[in-house]
Amino acid sequence: MESPPGSARSNPETEVGMRVEDLWDIQEPQLSPSEKLNSCFQSIPVISFPHAHSSQETLHPVIEIPSDSSLADAVETLSRNRMLSAPVRNVEAPQNASWIDRYIGIVEFAGIAVWLLHQSEITPRGTDGLDLKLSNIKQDESRKPVPEAAASVGGTFLETLTSSEFYKKTKVQDISGSFRWAPFLALQKSDSFLTMLLLLSKYRMKSLPVVDLGEKKIDNIITQSAVVHMLAECVGFQWFESWGTKMLWELGLPINRNKLVKLSEDDPVLKAFHLMRKRRIGGLPVVDKSGNKAIGNISIRDVQYLLAAPEMYKGYRSITAKVFLRSIKSYLDAHKDASPRFLGVLTCHRDDTIKDIILKLDHEKTHRIYVVDQEDNLEGVITLRDIISRLVHEPNGYFGDFFDGVVPLPQNSRV
After folding, report:
1. Is residue 285 part of a domain?
2. pTM for the whole thing?
3. pLDDT the model gives residue 13
4. Domain presence at residue 318
5. Side by side, which strands form the sheet with 103-108?
6. Count of structural domains, the chain
7. Is residue 38 part of a domain?
8. In 152-259, which ranges are E strands?
């Protein structure tokens, strides 16, 4: 997986690495490696970051979802383009609107799904009798607390939800402020890599649009995954090796050791998404009956399978975590053209290097890796955000009034 830097691997990510390398060589000798990295990344504008869905020859336009699209249409668009999120264009904005009025936020596949599941808890008031249908499906669970009742429903519930007029008529703009709805915090092309890296880590942004002020539109979208892929392509550069050869424990990883949120293999899978919503996390391990060893991983991204393919669970009275993982594997085996999904449990040890972790995560295209001890007992988790947060640090007063012009979080936001 590791390749030497240089002309043998010419790509946009490597070009960024070479640019950092050139800046690294001219930094003041008294600066620490951490200060050198900060200085290098502050000197490179985000216009240099490789475009999403691009090749050397072709740049594809950023896909947008109109604010008046139905949830069903938005899910279809995201599924067709194999995307997890997209900017929402305000259809009511005038033709000459500024970029900040042109968009109302970023909507995620997971956000739509979790919002719909949340509606099942509060009895949706649809015009097609969905509330009655849902109550009939869940009548045997009426004595249970609402979250537990919602978590125990099976495939019939999901098919009812996705075939309802409620799902087909609710508009994307109606769910602004829901779980994992991102405010429209955009970068300009002149903003620095350091700003971008800090926003994706310390400030917990999941993706960052880069705006073309002249065209008043989004020119690129930078994600945590794209940053980690860039780092993987920079293995071998002096600046990378000075940081990447450090062991996890030297960088204070994993964070919150031995405080991992877990899900038993026999728990209802919807409990996983309720826990993610409650704890504001993006994934968790599925553990065996001992509670210490991981047998699988469920990510917030996996909630898409509840909407995109509810037929997978038809006949199941209760969809357990074990059934869910098995159904995803069967579905992906039958749909070879579906987006790749790592189905195993990615693990590491505290004495592995950050470079090892980056290469594993990038190779498997997954967002988290679990730290285990010598007996494979879970100790913690490392996410893409954790990695980026150890690459740079925020200088005192760095952002100044940067956030003053940002569109505020929608009311009741759970980002």
Report:
1. yes
2. 0.82
3. 93
4. yes
5. 65-66, 85-89, 103-108
6. 1
7. no
8. 187-188, 207-212, 217-223
Residues spanned by the domain of 268 = 248-389
Number of alpha carbons in the 13 Å side-chain half-sphere of residue 104: 20
Q: In what order do the strands lie in the sheet with 217-223?
A: 187-188, 207-212, 217-223
Q: b vs e for 136-175, b when ≥16 Cβ sit within 10 Å of the residue's Cβ?
A: ebbeebeeeeebebbbbbbbbbbebbbebebbeebbbbeb
Report how far residue 339's alpha carbon sits from residue 341's, in angstroms, rounded to the nearest whole number. 6
Three-state DSSP state, 122: coil
- Cα angle value 277/202/409 (rounded, 5°): 55
Distance, CA of 299 to CA of 243 (rounded, Å): 28
CATH number at residue 304: 3.10.580.10
Query: For 225-277, how does the pLDDT look when each residue is reduced to its tens digit (9 = 90+)?
Result: 999 999 999 999 999 999 999 999 999 999 887 789 999 999 988 888 888 87
Residue with tokens 């509670």: 291
Cα radius of gyration (the chain)? 22
Classify residue 104: in a domain, yes or no.
Answer: no
Between the alpha carbon of residue 53 and those of residues 61, 146, 374, the distances in Å are 9, 41, 40
Phi-psi category of residue 306: left, alpha or beta, with phi > 0 → left and psi -120 to 50 → alpha: alpha
The length of the chain in residues reads: 415
Lowest-pLDDT choice from 81-95, 130-144, 375-389: 130-144
Q: What 3-state DSSP class applies to 35?
A: helix
- Phi first, then psi, for residue 181 (nearest 5°) are -90, 120
State the virtual CA torsion across 399, 227, 58, 337 in degrees, nearest 10.
Answer: -140
Q: For residue 398, give Cα distances in angstroms to 39, 191, 235, 277.
A: 12, 12, 28, 31
Residue 288 and residue 265 in contact, taking contact as beta carbons nearer than 8 Å: yes
Q: Name 12's Cβ contacts closer than 8 Å, sequence gap at least 6.
A: 50, 51, 54, 56
Q: Enter the tokens of residue 327.
A: 């159904």
148 within 8 A of 270, measured Cβ to Cβ: no
pLDDT tens digits along 74-128? 988 988 887 878 899 999 999 888 888 888 888 888 778 777 777 766 544 443 4
3-state helix, strand, coil in the chain (%, to 5): 45, 15, 40
